[in-house]
Design a protein that fits this description.
Oligomer: single chain
Largest sheet: 5 strands, antiparallel
Shape: elongated
Structural class: alpha+beta
Strand content: 15-25%
Radius of gyration: 20 Å
Helix content: 40-55%
């Protein structure tokens, strides 16, 4: 009996702490999400570089040093969903979430700010990427990046092109 009470107290403490550290995806206008659930932990959303232009150095730094923490924060989100009893429309537990960055925000807000840097990096032979999708499920975590390329039309200056 005491062990069950202790587990219940731990569960309640976790949910109490998690509820102060949640991000409501409905307020993230730059993101589109596919899930019945619209809350994720702030720690997870902060680790997803949506809207950032990633040079080679930033991209490989993210891949090499952030993925372990990303897995940890993703697991916290999954645990929150499970312990809070959040379900889908059919009553089954929420088990996955897909986030997509609205590329309109990228091309109208992020890319113009860094247009010269992007052009310079690409013309120097470096790749420039951005996070386009994040998938979280009970069995996998995926991060998908797209690449920005230059498009050259004859007799016109080089322009940044959407993928």
């Amino acid at each position: 009996m005491s062990e069950a009470l202790e587990i219940q107290e731990i569960r309640e403490e976790f949910l109490r702490e998690a509820s102060f550290n949640l991000t409501d995806l409905r307020n993230q206008v730059q993101l589109t999400y596919w899930s019945e659930q619209h809350f994720i932990t702030q720690g997870l959303i902060k680790l997803l570089p949506f809207g950032e232009i990633l040079s080679d150095i930033h991209f490989y730094s993210y891949i090499d040093y952030s993925l372990d923490e990303l897995i940890s924060k993703a697991n916290q989100t999954l645990l929150y969903w499970r312990l809070s009893g959040i379900t889908q429309y059919d009553g089954t537990p929420v088990t996955q979430l897909s986030l997509f960055y609205d590329e309109t925000f990228l091309w109208h807000y992020s890319a113009p700010l860094y247009q010269e840097e992007i052009r310079s990096q690409i013309q120097s032979g470096h790749r420039v990427r951005f996070l386009s999708r994040f998938l979280l499920s009970q069995t996998e975590i995926e991060v998908e990046f797209n690449e920005i390329r230059l498009h050259r039309q004859q007799h016109l200056p080089v322009q940044i092109r959407q993928p």
